[in-house]
């Protein structure tokens, strides 16, 4: 091989390497950001009344916060997910049933019985009192409201 052929081969190899490396760099530039659910925050009138509701009815555990966080309560939803209750805003919040917090339980019948015992009104999605909704996939669900009017769904785990 002559000098010119070797020089051209080197240029070709370098060009191929650059093309290959540009794909790696380009792949890194197009990497999508991965997000996971962390918490939902609700504006409530009285953080203590709301926290009592969520601990008594849904058995959520309060996450300790510093004493200066007087108008805030954080509650564990499990698996590192949280519910934050904030009573720092005083405006009324208006929402409808389509906007709701949904939780699942393997003890659905026992949970519905607990709502009855606590005199908490529940309904199916259309709003029929004391009725259980059945989704097209067979999951049973009930809807009820917290002290500030937020809708909560509790549903059965796929049985």
Which properties best describe this structure?
159 residues, alpha/beta, 2,3-Dihydroxybiphenyl 1,2-Dioxygenase, domain 1, four-stranded mixed beta sheet, 3 helices, 26% strand
What does this structure look like?
This protein is an alpha/beta fold. It has 2 domains: 36-91, 2,3-Dihydroxybiphenyl 1,2-Dioxygenase, domain 1 (Roll), CATH 3.10.180; 94-159, Signal recognition particle alu RNA binding heterodimer, srp9/1 (2-Layer Sandwich). Helix content is 31%, strand content 26%. It has 3 helices and 8 strands, in the order αβαββββαβββ. It has a 4-stranded mixed beta sheet, with helices on one face. Strands 5-8-7-6 form a 4-stranded mixed beta sheet. The longest helix has 27 residues, at 3-29. Residues 36-157 form the VOC domain. InterPro entries: Glyas_Bleomycin-R_OHBP_Dase, Glyas_Fos-R_dOase_dom, VOC_core. Keywords: Signal. Residues 1-27 form the signal peptide.
On the 0-100 scale, what is the average pLDDT? 87
Number of helices: 3
Which regions have little confidence, pLDDT < 50, spanning 5+ residues?
A: none
CATH architecture of the largest domain: 2-Layer Sandwich
Total individual domains: 2
Strand order of the largest sheet: 1-4-3-2
